[in-house]
Amino acid sequence: MQKHGVAYTEHVYDYVDHGGASWGAESLGLSLHSVIKTLVMQNEKSEPLVVLMHGDCEVSTKQLARVIGTRHIEPCKPDVAQRHSGYLVGGTSPFGLRKPMPIYVERSVLGLERIFINGGRRGYLLGLAPGLLETLLKAQPVDCALAAP
């Protein structure tokens, strides 16, 4: 991020196993909608991809598959996600992935004033302008959000 001259803020909190985006948002006094989850998924050929989604939403894998032109999408198992991304689950960042993967971002994320996204370790979020997801990561906007139950 620094090598690109990008303005960002750092936000550290005490990580809790299985606390997810909601724990991070609560700990830092942030809107869960502005805390963005980095989800490693795979298609029917076990090819990995990343989805960036609001903390208070889930991914419609059927809608995502339809939008990107594949038959099936499913979340990777934690060990597989870690192998693809190079990050521990709970600390996955879309920046600095171990191997190149297509990155998709829920379109409404791009309309937010500021987002908070994992910075590469558990309990560490970066605050930044959402447009950077498109410019730095070449994230492709998609419509695949479901309200969380």
Automatic annotation (TrEMBL):
Matches recorded under CDD domains: YbaK_deacylase (cd00002)
Domain of life the protein comes from: Bacteria
Keywords assigned by UniProt, alphabetized: Lyase, Protein biosynthesis
Biological process, per Gene Ontology: translation
Domain YbaK/aminoacyl-tRNA synthetase-associated: 25-132
The keyword Lyase appears for this protein: yes
A Pfam entry, by short name: tRNA_edit
Catalytic activity, EC: 4.2.-.-
GO molecular function: aminoacyl-tRNA deacylase activity; lyase activity
Family: Belongs to the prolyl-tRNA editing family. YbaK/EbsC subfamily.
Protein name according to UniProt: Cys-tRNA(Pro)/Cys-tRNA(Cys) deacylase
Naturally occurring in which organism (per UniProt): Thiomonas bhubaneswarensis
Organism ancestry: Bacteria, Pseudomonadati, Pseudomonadota, Betaproteobacteria, Burkholderiales
